[in-house]
Fold this sequence. Notes:
By secondary structure, the chain is of the alpha+beta class. The mean pLDDT is 87. Strands 1-2 form a two-stranded parallel ribbon. It has one domain. Helices cover 41% and strands 12% of the residues.
Amino acid sequence: MHVTLIACGRLKERYLRDAVEEYSKRLSGYVKLD
């Protein structure tokens, strides 16, 4: 399966960037991420 994460604009808040990194790290073992 192939998943693309889309965000409008820049992620300014640190907690949002951390959440995206954690989410992609957890999913990377199961799907291909862009």
